[in-house]
Amino acid sequence: MEFKKLKIADLVPASYNPRKALKPGDAEYEKIKNSITEFGYVEPVIVNTDMTIIGGHQRVTVLSDLGYKDIDCIVIDIDKTKEKALNIALNKITGEWNKELLADLIKDLQSSDFDVAFT
Fold first, then answer.
1. Using one digit for the tens of pLDDT, what is the confidence trace for 52-75?
2. Mean pLDDT of the chain
3. All domains of the chain, ordered by start, with CATH?
4. Which of 42, 57, 58, 89 could bridge 119 with an S-S bond, Cβ 3.0-4.6 Å?
5. This prediction's pTM
6. Dihedral through CA 65, CA 46, CA 75, CA 54, nearest 10?
7. Region label for 55, one of left (φ > 0), alpha (ψ between -120 and 50) or beta (otherwise)
């Protein structure tokens, strides 16, 4: 695990991310925006070494909209199966799911013999 300042433009949203994308005006978007405005950017985005965003898609959207160009990130080196499982684990606590993408992601993890109980 390594802390790095990365350009938002270099980050790659995960195509499998089952969270619904937020937009200005959405209650959750506004909560994230208000939190960042009030407290600053205090929860680094988690990315894999190939710059795929694992955790923090919504924060990246809000930060970009707020004019941030470079952000602190936690870079980890894990295989794609664990990356997907970690994405679920990080998003499980809050947020609304795109159920179709979530079902596809769980099927993908199950077919790789990964124990989804870890998510």
1. 999 999 999 999 999 999 999 999
2. 90
3. 2-118 (3.90.1530.10)
4. 89
5. 0.79
6. -100
7. beta
